[in-house]
Amino acid sequence: MNTLRTGRIxxxxxxxxxxxxxxxxxxxxxxxxxxxAENALLPFYVSFFRDVVPFYAFAFALFLAVxxxxxxxxxxxxxxxxxxxxxxxxxxxxxxxxxxxxxxxNIVLAVVQVIWMRESYPATAFVTEEEKVYAQ
Length: 136
Fold this sequence. Notes:
Layout: H1 3-28, H2 36-39, H3 43-52, H4 57-76, H5 80-96, H6 103-116, H7 129-135
């Protein structure tokens, strides 16, 4: 299994797990989203997570979950769709970065995906090289 394929699977699984976590938070602990304001580094983020999100916590969680499932599916698919998934994921990671000191890791994830966008993706993440040859 090559590095790009492994990386795509890791990102896909990461986004699927994040979607499940957001659904669980949205249903069982919607108040947790207002806690994001405590570590936010930008005033806009502080006011958004303190003043807006608490009133729409379930909708916010549902939006994040759906968005992350879409990201996972795009990254795991093939061709243009993988690059679209990486692009949306890069934007998402950059937007997440100002939510706290751990934002450095979001930037690292974004940089990795910028590098991977230069590659081509003729097959889904679950098709092996041998299967690609056999299919031709």
